[in-house]
Specification:
The chain is an alpha/beta fold. Helix content is 26%, strand content 25%. The strands form two sheets. Strands 5-4-3-6-7-8-9 form a seven-stranded mixed beta sheet. A two-stranded antiparallel sheet has the order 1-2. Strand 1 (61-62) and strand 2 (68-69) form a beta hairpin. The protein starts with 9 loop residues before the first helix and ends in a 16-residue tail after the last strand.
Length: 225
Amino acid sequence: MIFGRRKSDDSFDAQRADMVEGQLRRHGIRSERVLDVMGRVPREAFVPDRHRAFAYADNALPVEHGQSISQPYMVALMTQALELEGPERVLEIGTGTGYQAAVLAALCAAVYSVERIPELAETARTRLADQGIANVTITVGDGTCGWPEHAPYDGIIVTAGAPKAPQPLLNQLAAGGRLVIPVGDRVSQMLKAFTKRADGIREQDLCACKFVPLLGAHGWSEREA
């Protein structure tokens, strides 16, 4: 996949390469497929204009409507944990700016993304279209309920912290599929990978993290958040 309809800024190209080597590979991202894609997706195209100069900083950035775009390392780690090989169908909960979806789109056959804030969903659609990405479908709704119409999914990725893994998402995993999600309280979480096996769900801790709360029927309520 070739990203972008316009020639990219050389300064961002250099920053992107530095991010891959200094932030990702250096800190344990081993998947060459993930590293390659992270080195090609123009993160600067998925952040608000006022933050473009910091697109490749080693931290999360604030975006519209009180949300955030995750630290590049966290995007790479969560993507790597899905263990994508190419033909998979992936569900993303929390479209945000569309950056995580763009990374996933280059690694699997189709991405279905649920965003609860309509304005974010529309902006993400525009950003993805500007990059020529056509295998991402976005809907507005309660992501904690998943998107049953397109289930089962080979991978599910949740970009917000939940009190526990929502049962509807576990139900929508295909056999052998993996759910990657931050689980914990509203202040801090543990990034976990849940794998659906014939004998049940296997749970694996990946790293400590901090995400915005996952709001919805099977997450935090607006009052609790």
